[in-house]
């Protein structure tokens, strides 16, 4: 019943996870130059970069959550529910607490200095906070992703148990070419109802949106026929994803999102764009996952240092970007000159820190590094599959 992973490691998932982390990095390096608000902003912004942000934002984070849902299926193959939650706590809760305490104050300080709300040095800044509750005690910054994953693991577990052995009805209806794309249909009314619900940033509507794709990631991996359907429909998925996105661009989705994200709400425009976004996201997810399954380069093990550094890289990359962008955006230079400095420098510094963190004795577990065995050798039998 389960996907082909019972006898072998699904290496393509590890590669796609690495690419997802890299995609989030690129997304955040673009944020100082788009039209939206962020922690550090350049005086001049770019409409082209805003379109790129809209494009990546549509499906990039959903893809990250879908891959995480697929990883949940891998983790539950030989674990009980209690073992699964314990493993998720070690891999997610510990690094969240560590990163929140160590890195959120730095990001708070950079943002306050950049926006002119403080001129103090780092140490004086925090010494003088006194009894006030600083923003970083309420804002998780980029670590909201880990908060979501912890909650998804808890909420998803009973649903995953329920789905075991009960995917036949769905799998049989996804045998025709393009039929896997219809999995977006039941998501449309859910997203239409909840995505515009009032609430804070990363509120309930967004929570449900990403949770849906987290569950779909588990669902697809749990049945070989669904995996085969995704692999088969990579091209139709690309056509759907690109087509829906282009339709959105030509009908004004960029302008719509510019005003909608800061103040989401229901409108006639929303009735058009919400279903369009759902289909665009699912199309891109099927395309990327399907091509990942097909790629010959993704059928071998991820190099151990790269696999171990993926989570630390995610944790450290945004503070690094903010620290470098703080100085870069002050230059008297064109946007692309600044970006040509920010992108490679932030990549090198983040990679160096991630490799260092993942190799120091006793430190890797604090940053969510997986055991070497989970990516360094193929899973060939039941005993080796269990950590």
Task: Describe this protein's structure.
Helix 1 (11-30) crosses helix 14, helix 10 (234-250) runs antiparallel to helix 12 and helix 13 (304-328) packs across helix 14 (335-357). This protein is globular. The chain has helices at 11-30, 47-76, 81-114, 122-127, 144-163, 168-172, 187-194, 204-221, 224-232, 234-250, 253-260, 268-294, 304-328, 335-357, 373-376, 382-385. Mean pLDDT is 85; it is low at 1-7 and 373-387. The chain is an all-alpha fold. The protein starts with 10 loop residues before the first helix and ends with a helix. Helix content is 67%, strand content 0%.
- Following the backbone from N to C, one meets helices and strands in this order, namely HHHHHHHHHHHHHHHH
Q: Which percent bin holds the helix content?
A: 55-70%
Largest sheet: none
Structural class by helix and strand composition: mainly alpha
- Estimated share of beta-strand residues: under 5%
Shape summary: globular
Q: Averaged pLDDT, please?
A: 85
Could you give the distance between the termini? 22 Å
> How many H/I helices?
16
In the predicted model, the low-confidence regions spanning at least 5 consecutive residues are 1-7, 373-387
By DSSP, the count of extended strands is 0
Radius of gyration: 21 Å
